[in-house]
Task: inverse folding
């Protein structure tokens, strides 16, 4: 911007150069990650014991299977889910890279969604807000439920990477970050159904 101002005669020098090094860089925060299979088991048992609202419980149970961002899970729309194909198709406009994304659904996920459908299937969202059914759950709903049941904070991309590095396949699934489902992997998951 300042180079443009200098080139067009609006400024004599780049004043931002005088600020170089004046501000300390923002530090990064590392979050704890589950890197032990026993820890994953403890988390899954804790979420299984969740005694709160039905849609939040369903979201907690589905999250480890689908490996999507929390906002994508909360915003799941019934029109995107096919019980027959056992797929969840995200339209391009909802995706960061603006490309359609298909998540294969394990039979356990299909069963959970089928059980949820009589309660929320008449609306747009699979996991609607409790007070305002026309909106998805708030971003804090699932996070608060996870903290309440297990004391565990939802994970960041670094937590996902740590779980991946530990050979846990990215479990438990409450991660921000990229996710790619190669066709061979999708076929393998569908064959389990």
Result:
């Amino acid at each position: 911007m300042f180079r443009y101002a200098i080139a067009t005669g609006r400024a004599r020098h780049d004043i931002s150069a005088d600020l170089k090094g004046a501000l300390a860089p923002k530090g990064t925060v590392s979050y704890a990650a589950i890197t032990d299979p026993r820890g994953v088991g403890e988390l899954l048992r804790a979420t299984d014991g969740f005694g709160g609202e039905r849609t939040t419980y369903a979201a907690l149970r589905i999250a480890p299977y689908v490996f999507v961002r929390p906002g994508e899970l909360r915003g799941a729309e019934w029109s995107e889910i096919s019980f027959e194909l056992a797929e969840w198709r995200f339209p391009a406009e909802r995706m960061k890279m603006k490309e359609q994304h298909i998540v294969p659904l394990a039979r356990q996920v299909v069963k959970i969604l089928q059980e949820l459908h009589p309660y929320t299937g008449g609306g747009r969202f699979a996991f609607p807000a409790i007070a305002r059914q026309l909106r998805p759950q708030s971003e804090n709903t699932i996070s608060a439920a996870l903290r309440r049941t297990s004391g565990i904070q939802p994970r960041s991309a670094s937590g996902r990477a740590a779980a991946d590095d530990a050979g846990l396949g990215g479990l438990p699934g409450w991660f921000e970050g990229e996710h790619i489902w190669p066709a061979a992997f999708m076929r393998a998951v569908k064959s389990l159904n």
Q: What stands out?
A: The first strand starts at residue 81 and ends at 82. The mean pLDDT is 77. Helices lie at 2-7, 37-48, 54-66, 70-74, 107-120, 139-150, 157-165, 183-192.
